Amino acid sequence: MTDPLLSVRDLKTQFFTEDGTVRAVDGISFDVYEGEIVGLVGESGAGKSVATSSILRLVDSPGEIVGGEIEFKGETIFGLEEDAAGDLRPRDEMLSESEMRKRIRGREIAIVFQDPMESLNPVFTVGGQLREFIEINRDLSEAAAKTEAIAMLREVGIPAPESRYDEYPHQFSGGMRQRVLIAMALACQPDLIIADEPTTALDVTVEGEILEMVQELQEKYDTSFIWVTHDMSVVAEICDRVNVMYLGEIIEQAEVDDLFYDTKHPYTSALLDSMPRPDETVDELRPIKGVMPEAINPPAGCRFHSRCPEAREVCREVHPEARDLSAGGEAAHTAACVKHDAFDVGYEESPAIETEATGGFSAGFTETGGGAE
Amino acid sequence: MATKRDSPTDGSTDTEGTGAGEIEARVGLRYTLRQVKRDTTARIGIYTVGFVTLIAVLASIDNYVFDYAIAEAIWYSPVQDPEQVRRLLPPVGMENQYGQGTLEHPMGTDHRGRDIFGRLFYGTRVAITVGFMATAIGLVGGTLIGAVSGYYGGRIDDVLQRVTETIYAIPFLVLVIAFMTAFGRDLTFAMIGVGITSIPVFNRLIRSRVVSVREEDYIEAARAAGVKDRNIILRHVIPNSFAPVLVQATLQIGVSILIVAGLSFLGFGAQPPTPSWGQMLSASRNYMLPAPTFSLFPGMAILVTVIGFNILGDGLQDALDPRINN
User: Fold this and answer.
1) What's this model's pTM, rounded to 2 decimal places?
2) Contacts of A268 in chain B (CB under 8 A)
3) A241-246/A37-41 β-pairing
4) Above 0.90 for ipTM, yes or no?
């Protein structure tokens, strides 16, 4: 198999707050290959957005990437090594901040943000912003960049792009703005686009259109995507491979069909059960009980055990590392749940425990400040 | 970016957002001007400021291009003492111990026999130049310092803000006088001095806006697109934080005019014979009883100009405030 376009290994990003260290991303590893759409799924606060901003090294203080390795097209975006004194320091081949800014951000890896209402500068015209972006990242003259900008607007399905070029963001609807942002991301023909919940703020019909458009454009340009979402139906629609995150960890990783039809982790099943599916009829949806624990003090053992319907005594003690559970010859399917025989830690013998999911204690549905996402 | 919208157990798509986002066009110079014009008081402000500025422009042209040739041709030179001294005359239609007011000097003459109307007219130049220049210095300096300070935060913010507070802590008149004593008593240093003392005002104002603007998604988007910090500050942060600064600038012009008039009164600022309102007021002090109109006119000029800028500022504030629907 070819080398991955982007390879993330054991990435750890932490926020140092007054209340303690928030382990927002706690050792995740995944790959993105050329031309594929990789999903990153999880509840609010699972660490999805922090993971994506870590890839671009855009984590702000008090947050910091504290460990792991990010490689993109053979270049090191992030990597640490021990110096003579045993302290960690950035590796020499790690790209400098100005190299990141000039070569990677926008040019090689573009990002589409969640809220199209907020992601365009309200005081400049849409066309002007798109043109400026193309000018910066593709070294074109102003006139050439304008032609390119109009072409991109047409490409993402904005009618009458010449006249809409001079309009301000508030004159665009949400769906149209998201199209502009996608145009902006595609404009520099990056190899990888990180889409951070780009359709969450849109209604379902617009979402459908956008997804369709992205798929078409993806085939045309052969761009890879990291598609961050909490919506399993979007995952089913668009992704090739999926990473499911829970509390800073990737707990299941599989091709999209395997994930849906051969779910290995109770959290993933719970996510799937909590939404309506066209292929199953149920009387009542089963939401995941409880809220995600704080990332400052993650539960010992399996992090999901406090809400897991299948939790046993052993889940409290053993922290499962994700393992490949696929049978020989199949595509990789990793999961981090000790109920599978491969872990062999005595799940079957262990007594079941009471959790929020089994009705052990009442769980509120209010949001708690479960750490930064 | 907390995704507050998705509730923890809800995997379905959020349907709010679209449709509700149609905001009325509330940006742009034309919209603001239209808004200002709808307000009667603000309109008076615009006309006053426009009128005074026009006079100042005419006076400047005569001063710099023709060296008061126009004034001399049609009226009297505002700077030279007239040959035939008829000092402290009252305005036309009035009488005092020095004589009868004549149409030749509609506002009377000063203690050296110069025409008050002419000096008032040409004094506008000083007032407006000082108002605009001092404010420009404060505006540019304060905006840049405040934007950098607010955008980066942390130690840079601490240092810049402490320096600002130090300037703030010294009474501004003392600061300006000390500054002018050190560098020179003329108008240029008056402008620079007043400009510097107004830096903290703009600095604090814009910093408070920048601190919230820097968290906006489009700033994050710009960073992710590889835009340089300098361009982010100049093109994204400052334009989005500028509305309150613009209002403050209008008010600050009035304040600067007042301060420099005060400085002229104390003998700092425009030096004789350059006509300036503050200096006219200062000279008229000694003749308050025999010729009260001598001090009345420059005082009125200052009053009208400053009020003009203030009501324009208020009007702008209303026009730029999205919470006020009119």
Assistant:
1) 0.74
2) none
3) parallel
4) no
